[in-house]
Amino acid sequence: MKRERIINIHQKTLDDLEFGTVQLQLSEHCVTNLGKETALKVVPFYEVEVLKKELSYTNEYLSSFDNDNRIPNHGFEALTKEIKLLNIDNTYLEIPSLQKLVSTSLTANSILKFLGKFKEYYCNLHQLSLPIEHTTAIIDHVDVVVDRYGDIKDNASPTLATLRKSIATLRTKINTSFASALNKYHNLEYLDDIRESVVENKRVLAVKSMYRRKVKGAIMGGSKTGSIVYIEPETTLQYSRELNNLEYEEKEEVIKILKDLTNYIRLFLPLLNQYQDFLIKIDVISAKAKYARSMNAILPEISEERSMYLRDAYHPLLYLTNTAKGDTTFPQTISLEDEARIIVISGPNAGGKSITLKTVGLLQVMLQSGMLVPIHERSKMCLFDRILSDIGDNQSIENHLSTYSYRLKQMNYFLRKCNKNTLFLIDEFGTGSDPELGGSLAESFLEVFYDRKAFGIITTHYSNLKLLANELPHMRNANMLFDERTLEPIYKLVIGQAGSSFTFEVAQKNGIPYSLINKAKKKIERGKVRFDATIAKLQKQRSRLEKTEQSLKANEKKKQSEADKLEEVNQKVQKKLENYQELYDSNQRLIYLGQKVNDLADKFQNNNKKRELMSELFRLVQIENSKKKKVSAKQKRAEKAKEAQIKKEAEKKVEVIRKKKKAAKQKEKEKPTPPKPVLKVGDRVRMHDGRAVGTIDKIEKNKATVNYGLFTTNVSIDLLELVESSNK
Fold first, then answer.
1. Which residue, among 383, 388, 306, 361, has the nearest Cα to 339 in the 3D structure?
2. Which of 235, 541, 574, 670 sits in a 20 to 30 Å window from 358, CA-based?
């Protein structure tokens, strides 16, 4: 039985590769708060099969952006509070909560229905949705109780319908009785000018203070000045008390209805959890797809073998930052396989060594987190069980560890965990201690990693590590190219040759006195200086060869283009020469025939013998016909068929051209016509079909008098077009 591979990537590796920034950028593409929270927790998957499914989900969602079958909107409000309440007995959901459930159900069902309809396009997403039930039960039951305005319907229960009918009747009685009292006391002049007001949501009479004892009812308050007393009439008061009782009963009935509805919805609690989890999942997948689109990322071929080929790979964070600034990002091409499983990158600082290392690591982590990566479509990647990293200065004040102590602790961890399914990334390998001792210890570590058949990329300045990479068959040197004159980085990785640190060259460029540089050279071993100088020389030569190669390629391309042009011109000249030759031969034959006919005419003029003339002409025609090649019936049919084929092809081309012209005309017709300018006296105009320009002297009844200098004429305004406005 085959054991399932378990992937375990440590949090330190994620921190070293700045994966937290990727999580943050990913969360910004989510449309829901729960989706954002989930995106911030995205980490590499533990199981290979789950990872492959996640990659397929993202790739399918990305493809939906480029076709007409776009996946429906998945936005929803979190159901966290509602789900908590449903888990508690004897609780009920308020109307806003019920509306949220309906909205979530509608959203989930629309996506489920869509994925079922287009399962051929989105087969993996369809498989993801299969465990979730497509039902409208929640929507239907809420719709029976709640209307579109968010109110409980009158027919939600028979009792509620009766109560609301009674309430409506009572309110009519209240209004009638209040109107009667209002008219009565207004006629008696007991009321203030405002007549009535509203206190505690009740209509009250605005009674003058001096008449308050003459008006029967309940005093509800008074004005600030004390001149007005607000009284609810006695007849209205009786109806109000009855209305209060009915409204209380209505409220109780509404709660009962909501409880019954909540108890029914409680049966669908697992489904609601599924809906929410599914929509969160879709939100994160959508964010991954949008994030991929922002950096032109793709899903590369996932190799089952231990092989990685990254062509034109971009560092995602650097690419997005540079794109926002309008700067150029330089891609790298790098490969790792059994025959070349460890790469030692060397060269001066600020050349792009660390970025190249981080690019490989971050792309690998992103891929194993179910995200697409910005590389060429012909790239290939494999999966690693562990990714070990040691990047940057990790001096720890809290743990009282120096950089070197910390790095030794990391190397000890590497020794415990490193195997053939491991990718290790070490920046500035061996630094932090005495160069001689640190370099030898780093060499020993590297030999162990090599023996365990691990994949890895390291950056270093140590010569012994460069030599080791040159000696071992499955290890390669690499360097970042520099301009040999300016010592400026080119940001291009070259496999197969170690790079010089250009220590003394860079020092000289930065103005350090040559005497001091020379003194420093004398203090170190001559062999080491010569070795570094040789590497530097080789690197300069490599750079020059690179430029020469590029120049030769450009020249070759240019020459090829020129050769193609010359060949084309030669063919045209040859064809013209052939045409001229045919024309010349034809003209010569016609001259010969003309001469013969002229001789016969002269002879006939002298002897006047018609029979002899006809005989000579007939013989001349026979001679000319004998020179012509006889064409068989088969050849005639072939020529006719060829002509017919040419004619058919020509008609097809003409038809295409006609269709294009027709479409262009239709498009031109559909274009909105610009508003015709209003002509006025003094404007310079001309007729649509004319060239002469005149000035409008007068406009009457849609006709204009146009002055052309020598003469004037009356023309319809519709036939004129504006050349220059009098305002200018």
1. 306
2. 541
